[in-house]
Specification:
The two termini are 48 Å apart. The radius of gyration is 35 Å and the shape is elongated. It has helices at 8-19, 36-48, 52-62, 65-68, 74-102, 107-124, 136-153, 182-206, 218-241, 253-263, 270-292, 303-318, 320-324, 347-376, 382-394, 408-416, 423-439, 448-457, 460-463, 469-475, 477-493, 495-516, 560-571, 575-594, 601-607, 639-653, 666-674, 696-705; strands at residues 132-133, 405-406, 520-524, 531-533, 541-542, 546-550, 613-616, 621-624, 626-630, 658-662, 714-715. The chain has 28 helices and 11 strands. By secondary structure, the chain is mainly α. It has a 5-stranded mixed beta sheet with strand order 4-3-6-9-10. The protein has a two-stranded antiparallel sheet with strand order 1-2. A two-stranded antiparallel ribbon has the order 5-11. Helix 26 (639-653) links the parallel strand 9 and strand 10. It folds into 2 domains: 65-155 and 181-512, no CATH class; 519-579 and 621-680 and 690-706, Transcription Regulator spoIIAA. Residues 584-603 are annotated as: Disordered.
Length: 716
Amino acid sequence: MLHGEDSCPAVEEGGEEDQHRPLILERIEKETGRTWRTVLSQRLRKHCSCTPEKAKSRILSFFPVLQWLPCYKLRDWILGDVMSGVIVGILLVPQSIAYSLLANQDPIYGLYTSFFASIIYALLGTSRHISVGIFGVLCLLIGQVVDRELALAGYLPESSLSGNDSSVPLAGNDSGVVGCDRSCYAIAVGATVTFTAGIYQVLMGLLQVGFVSVYLSDSLLSGFATGASLTILTSQVKYMLGLKIPRPQGWFTLFKTWYGLLSNLWNTNVCDLITSLVCLAVLIPMKELNDRFKSKLKAPIPFELFVVIIATLASHFGHFNTEYGSGVAGAIPTGFLPPQMPMWSLIPNVAVDAFSIAIVGFAITISLSEMFAKKHGYTVDANQEMYAIGFCNILPSFFHCFTTSAALTKTLVKESTGCQTQLSGLISALLLLLVLLVIAPLFYSLQKCVLAAIIVVNLRGALRKFTDIPCMWRANRIDAFIWLITMATSALVNTELGLLVGVLVSAFCVLGRTQRVQVLELGRAMTREHYEDLASYKGLQTHPDVAIFRYEAPIYYANQSLFKKSLYRCVGLDPVKEKSRRVKFQNSKPQEEAAGIPTSKMDEKEAEAPAAVTLMMDTASRYLRRIVIDCSAVLFLDTAGVNALKEVRKDYGELGVAVELAQCKTSVLDTLERGGYYRNQKGGDAGENHTIFFTIEDAIRHVESRSTPNGDYDKS
């Protein structure tokens, strides 16, 4: 139906009238009447019911290999997977032997660990690119636990052993295992810690707590890894110098280790020192060349393997062990040892250590998985990754293995050599199997100082983070502070404590940010209904008798008092102090009249209950009637926050200044409703309707309609 010209003015007047009314939205009624029994039964039916389709889906999700293997593109992917699998397998041989030294285990156990982890993750993992195996930080943590338990069981420290002799528990100490030498007990401890850590990881997967990885920020993990790298570097110096000193336990191990090194410096084995220097002189520049020309090389050159082969031949034919007393890897058996159960009696002793190891292992794995998944355009399941890495620890622990996780260096090599699926992990496992069955005994004469040099060279990436400190500080000082605190605690105090301190510092930094937030006074843009901070932008306008403020943080128990102080300071009037001043004035007025002291008209005017408050601002006075608080940035409220808003409204209301809230989120509105903020507002009943302002402009128009009109906006 078309309206004539006479009806147009009426329509326009009606439209203008609607624009001046606050926006009204009708809430969707939430479902009520559901008891906890109903919710529990529904969830049980959802998760415990079993249909053929659901069973198939669960099996496929638990074994991702069943999803990608039938869809494998043989012609497109096989070459890249084979090449990456072979290259990573070649790198795993020397690194597995070397990192066994860090974990205080025999070399054969490092090869076992890499072999089983590669197979299990290929079956259960959801990432196509990460390489799961031995990781330096976890080896350090395992080695610390192993050393401690060996000492508690009464086994002689490694420095007290001569040659390749084994040791048994000291007399009078029944903590050790009968018929089990030092090496046997060491791997028993390592396997027990690994089993316990795997149980933790699987339980976290069952409880769907894969989200915990988001609480370990990149700066925290980077600082932890760098601090642990300093500890690893320090622990390897004794092997590079050929010193036989025990690994210190407890806190401040870095200082204790360096004290032991400097105290025994004159006992340095010259053969080990020269070999270490030669290995470093070869490996460091060769690694740099690999990094510089990685875009041009189809695959990185395995210089570590070349160094291991040449050093083994030199040590064998030069009789470094017998002639110069150089420490060597010793006998490495072929094949596999029979399975062995974890030491159940040892689990209470290592439970706490295993938990920190489980958290670090999962955090490293999921962060690398998500990083490469995002880079290549697919997704990973955090909970399935928890299952995968958990079973990579549980199952191998029965076969003399220690803890594993994703490793960044080998993952980067795997990706750069054309890896497409986890078939490359199976090919790496085949190469390790060949070493285990045939080649392993040939490494008998390999010097430990060569393995230590390989570990030190592989720490370059973590140690380079020190050069990034200025950039981190300029980018974000809080993240840089977290990095420094975590790194310093991990390196100088205790590795496990560094992780805990990093988490606590991160949490306190988040809380601190909510403590430092200040209330901002807003002004209106000249051309549209938009409000921003007056201190940040020019040309904004303020209303002569309405002040608009914004608080950009949640209001809860920890910052509610700071919110009130900041608001009072920004308004320029503390209502509590103002009421106290007026009470004192009223009490002193009769005394002044009795004494014949005249009272000024201004004091009499202020003593009366005003309809507004005059504020003395920086440049001019301001006649304030209403305060509007923009709650758009308030994410949530708790009971203390609701009470703080009640107190602000009540205190200013007693001075004749009304307080209105605008742009509250739905969750904030619900909290205000439950907390009774709108109850008895303006003296009304609990059921009385109250106005909700979805825009700042609606709140201003509402308060203007309830007060005397007062001109246009004043330009600030």
